[in-house]
Amino acid sequence: MASLKTTVAGIALDCCIYNASGPRTGTVNALVKIGESRSGAVLSKSATLLCQDGNPLPRYKEFPLGDACPGSINSEGLPNQGIDYYISEEVVSAIGSLAKHYFVSLSGLSLADNLEMLSRAMKVQGIAAIELNLACPNIPGKPTMAYDFEQMDAVLQAVTTHPSFGSKPLGVKLAPYFDVPHFQRAASILNKYPIKYVVCTNTIGNALVVDAENEQALIKPKAGFGGLGGAYVKPIALANVRQFSQLLREDIDVVGVGGVASGTDAFELILCGAKAVQVGTKHWSEGASCFNRISEELSVLMTKKGYKSIEEFRGKLKENFCRPKAAPVVPKAANDGQGSAGGISALHVLQIVLCILVAVFLAREFKVTSKDVAAL
Ligand code: SIN
Fold first, then answer.
1. Torsion of CA 71, 77, 83, 86, to 10 degrees
2. Of 270, 192, 246, 359, which is closest to residue 3 (Cα–Cα)?
3. Which pLDDT does position 351 carry in this prediction?
4. Which of 202, 294, 325, 330 has the fewest CB atoms found within 10 Å of its own CB?
5. Is the pLDDT of residue 365 over 70?
6. Considering only CA atoms, which of 170, 102, 162 is closest in space to residue 133?
């Protein structure tokens, strides 16, 4: 049986698959369901300083991508119970009793909020790591911080020099980048700070999905603009994981998220360099049992390929140096478009039948008997 063990920020996880912050992560019941599954860790909903309801409904929809697994668009607007809930004794001990590491995600509406939440969370025993979400695209009037490099730099500077910083590893959730100079710029900022992991990536922000039948946007908030997730974003997630695993300091782990619906999807992200893989959209549609299924599929795939651990293939994506395959050699008779039967084409059979018919016709016409034939 292949092992799915890994480490993220030095924290040992029995399974490299766990949940993304977002769907089904807002309450202790939802978090316990994740903890009871095979998920390697439990990650909270991104918390704000105070409890908030988020954006108006409908704010999450799935929509198909051909026959493949669905994509999703959301503009949840960080509905959550507030930081004090996610770091409360009730939640921390419920997850601790399941022997799962608990990661807490923070997404403050201001730097001051982030610093306040950080100092509260850093003090709580039973929280393994803190994930700072710099990439929520769904707060009306607020830009995505991970796209504003100066602000990202300033926030990381303030967070990592704050007196409360240091007792727990810090991870940063990034927005998806699309251009090489942006990957480089983001990496050069991240490399300056004592962060332990990054998560690539949050949804592709400000996408628009149209309901043609009703001639309206699919979701309500922000005039329909929301974060695109699920199957649509997997190639972007793969690219971001690949780029950051090559550009970041070696001691910064990369966690992949985006369009993971199967063991093969998880395998691909690990091949690109991910030390662990989070699941968002599929967790929403399938529930916590998706962690069991995806882990099992990954394990089966690894066994089939002869891998015993994820380190045996992690980051080892090959470039495509293959020469185009030579066209298969097809026997001539099968390639002449006439069909074949044991090397004799249908045309040959037709020719023989015609000859016999002509011979019979001529024999009748000239009254040739079998005696005449024998006399020949
Ligand atoms: C949301 O609550 O709007 C989604 C969280 C995120 O995109 O960071």
1. -30
2. 270
3. 66
4. 325
5. no
6. 170
Q: What is the pLDDT of residue 129?
A: 98
Residue 80, both tokens: 């959550």
Cβ of residue 136 lying under 6 Å from some atom of ligand 1 = yes
Q: Which of 15, 16, 69, 136 is catalytic?
A: 136
Cβ contact 98:255 at 8 Å: no
202 lines ligand 1 (CB under 6 A): yes
Task: Answer yes or no: is the C-beta of 144 below 6 A from any ligand 1 atom.
Answer: no
CA of 75 to the centre of ligand 1 (A): 7
Cα angle: 172, vertex 175, 179; to 5 degrees: 120
Every domain of the chain and the residues it spans = 6-312, 346-370
Residue 347 confidence (pLDDT): 56
77 pocket-lining for ligand 1 (C-beta < 6 Å): yes
Nearest-atom number in ligand 1 for the CA of 205 is: 7
Would you identify the CATH topology of the domain 6-312? TIM Barrel (3.20.20)
**pLDDT tens digits for range 243-257:** 999 999 999 999 999
136 is known as an active-site residue: yes
Q: Among 51, 145, 203, 204, which residue has the most ligand 1 atoms within 8 Å of its CB, making it the best to mutate?
A: 203
Q: Are 272 and 256 within 8 A, CB to CB?
A: yes
Average pLDDT, the chain: 91
Tell me if 78 CB under 6 Å of ligand 1.
yes
What pLDDT sits at residue 373? 46
The pTM for the full model equals 0.86
Separation CA 187–CA 181 (nearest Å): 10
